[in-house]
Amino acid sequence: MISEDLTPVDPRAARPMNARPGDAQPALILVNLGTPTAPEPSAVRAYLREFLSDRRVIEMSPLLWKPILEGIVLRVRPRPVAAKYRSIWLDGGSPLMHYTREQARLLGERLPGVRVEVAMRYGQPSIGSILDGLHADGVRRVAVLPAYPQYAASTVATLNDTIARWIRRNRDGFEMRLQRSFPAAPAYIDALAVALEEHWERVGRPNFLAGDRVVVSFHSIPVAMDEAGDPYRGECRRTVAALETRLGLPMGSLTVCFQSVFGRAQWLGPQTIDEMGELGRARCPRVDVICPGFVADCLETLEEIDQLNRETFVEAGGGDFHYVPWANDSDGAVTALEEQARIALAGWV
């Protein structure tokens, strides 16, 4: 018998007869760099071994690098780095892990119908373990959001490499979307600007004519990576230009620096720590520092900037030092991530 019901069927509502419950629900994975599991030398050593063994991070032949890594770096660095982590550690773990989880929770509240997960490129929870769990639960649509506003091969590309390795190991894959970067996205730039404006409402706007400075500090990369075509420095410049426009400042008002260098290679500069020493010696009356590349506070912002750079500036003769937080679970930061999440999830929710 032929049915007389000719009502059109919405193809979006159609599901295969063998579909599993998780098929209809997309997932969003918020990925950050990673963190040791504890502020102890053994945990730091394990983390650094995984991080510094990545060929995207250290572009040196393993035959040359591994003896240096195992024989020098992993013998010398874990203890002092662990002490630095202890100075910023929270009851719930490292700040980076704590705030990334909080961002995921808040995103989940803003994205009904989306399963939001946290993964770390190095350490736990690993990207592979999260993909395994989603796959086992029947999820087949996955959007990946790197918590890196500016693209670099040593951050976003190595994350994509990890996902590609998971895909190669599995026959039944995902419909997957990988966000690239968002150096001048409206909500992101607004989050940075609002943080500075609210800070200036509390302490007064900087007087550039009197010598006050606003420093924008990004994580550095080796010059060799930049010369090989890495787009990172250009994306940092886009962020600064967009931020100056949003704040109504003349181009060049913000001082751009790069931090977190190590080893003997030449890195993008000027280095933030060197700039702080020079500003201090010049008797700079005030410096405000913001770190647009870090979506969650971590060792590089809380210890390196707010402790070491503050000390360098003040001891050299500088005046007031202000680290201006903008990220973590602030409304602006979560809104910036939500904007990117909705782009990645478009058509799925």
UniProtKB/TrEMBL annotation:
Annotated Fe(2+) binding sites: 219, 300
InterPro entries: Ferrochelatase, Ferrochelatase_AS, Ferrochelatase_C, Ferrochelatase_N
GO CC entries: cytoplasm
Catalytic activity from the UniProt record: Fe-coproporphyrin III + 2 H(+) = coproporphyrin III + Fe(2+)
Localization terms from the record: Cytoplasm
Alphabetically ordered keywords of this record: Cytoplasm, Heme biosynthesis, Iron, Lyase, Metal-binding, Porphyrin biosynthesis
Name of the protein this chain belongs to: Coproporphyrin III ferrochelatase
Organism: Actinomyces bouchesdurhonensis
Record lineage: Bacteria, Bacillati, Actinomycetota, Actinomycetes, Actinomycetales
